[in-house]
């Protein structure tokens, strides 16, 4: 289950993150250029993104974001449900 505060690095742009958050939680409040406040009846998440270093694999270049997750309300189960929904929209396909 998710802790009250943790960080992740993801391969994405700020625009991609904005689309994912809007799809998962259309009522999310945008806070600055890379921040979001997601409120559900059970939990509240403040998500802050900042651009990270570019990942390079041979000739492939991937942008990265450093995401900071900070839950300001909700028990462990509620935080897990909120995060699970967001993760579904952030998931990329694979082989």
What tags apply to this protein structure?
95 residues; Ribosomal Protein S8, Chain: A, domain 1; 2 helices
**What's the CATH class label?**
Alpha Beta
Structural class: alpha+beta
Helix content: 25-40%
- How are helices and strands ordered from N to C? EHEEEEEEH
Which word captures the global form? elongated
Structure description:
The strands form two sheets. The protein has a five-stranded antiparallel β-sheet with strand order 1-7-4-3-2, with no helix packed on it. Strands 5-6 form a two-stranded antiparallel sheet. It is elongated, with a radius of gyration of 14 Å. Strand 5 (55-57) and strand 6 (60-62) form a beta hairpin. It has a single domain (5-74), classed as Ribosomal Protein S8, Chain: A, domain 1 (2-Layer Sandwich). Helices cover 27% and strands 39% of the residues. The protein has helices spanning 14-24, 76-90, and strands at 5-10, 29-31, 35-39, 44-51, 55-57, 60-62, 65-73. It has 95 residues and is an alpha+beta fold. The protein contains two helices and seven strands; from the N terminus they run E-H-E-E-E-E-E-E-H. Helix 1 packs across helix 2 (76-90). The longest helix has 15 residues, at 76-90.
């Amino acid at each position: 289950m998710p802790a009250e505060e943790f960080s992740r690095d993801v391969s994405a742009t700020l625009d991609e993150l904005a689309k994912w958050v809007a799809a998962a939680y259309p009522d999310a409040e945008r806070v600055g250029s890379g921040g979001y406040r997601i409120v559900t009846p059970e939990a509240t998440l403040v998500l802050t993104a900042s651009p990270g270093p570019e990942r390079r694999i041979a000739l492939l270049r991937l942008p990265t974001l450093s995401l900071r997750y900070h839950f300001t309300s909700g028990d462990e189960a509620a935080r897990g449900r909120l995060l699970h929904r967001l993760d579904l929209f952030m998931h990329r396909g694979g082989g």
